[in-house]
Specification:
Length: 138
């Protein structure tokens, strides 16, 4: 199995009453992006939408070739190790790690290290995966 060509990873915390400043204070980091419910935010299509929920997110450095485990450790190591903070956040908000896996050819794959899985489990974080297959020519 060939290694996955590229990986992107973002920690996401979402909720109706989410205050990005509070999350930053609790986690000890500034987000890549954040907004409160009801705020007008710009979209990638040069439009604007009103946020239906509050959001705090922190992106890892893109990896090519992919290395999802390193991204997980990178993001979580930048934040508080206090697991009681993570328990509280998990009780109040939807918290997850969201990743894009991008293949250049068929049968590429990725493995997670025990360290990355342990860090996710300690913080009760789900892992969402969007897997993008290589372009299929005609």
């Amino acid at each position: 199995m060939a290694s996955i060509s590229r990986t992107d990873l973002t920690l996401r915390i979402l909720g109706d009453d989410l205050d990005p400043d509070e999350i930053s204070r609790l986690l000890g980091a500034v987000p890549t992006k954040s907004y409160r419910k009801g705020e007008v935010r710009k979209t990638t299509n040069s439009g604007e939408v009103i946020a239906k929920r509050g959001s705090w997110s922190l992106q890892a450095e893109r990896r090519s070739p992919g290395d999802l485990s390193a991204q997980i450790v990178e993001v979580l190591s930048r934040l508080t190790p206090d697991l009681s903070v993570w328990v509280s956040l998990g009780q109040r908000f939807d918290c997850d790690l969201f990743s894009g896996l991008f293949m250049d050819e068929g049968n590429e794959g990725e493995e997670l290290t025990v360290q990355a899985m342990a860090m996710m489990a300690e913080r009760s974080l789900k892992l969402g995966l969007d897997i993008y297959s290589p372009d299929q020519g005609d």
